[in-house]
Amino acid sequence: MIDQQKAAQELFGLSKNYWTSMINMMSDIQDQNLKVWNNLLEQGLVAQNESKRMLQEWMNRAKSSREEFTRAMEENWKKAEAALSAGQKSNK
Hints:
The chain is mainly alpha-helical. It has two helices and no strands.
């Protein structure tokens, strides 16, 4: 018979690994886009003065939001993992 706690832990592990891979890929893409935009802004090919400042602020907020979301999710993964571990200990 299948151990439900072990199955839940394996499913949790797979979900966490999937999420980690996805967020890393999205972070890499965003970082590359930021580099391209920064190069374009530095060369003056996209915007001047006020528009340049607005684009820079937008890029900084996007990166900051991504980092904040990632920290919150990592904290929640830790809490879920602790709850799963606590459930396994209480079943023994």
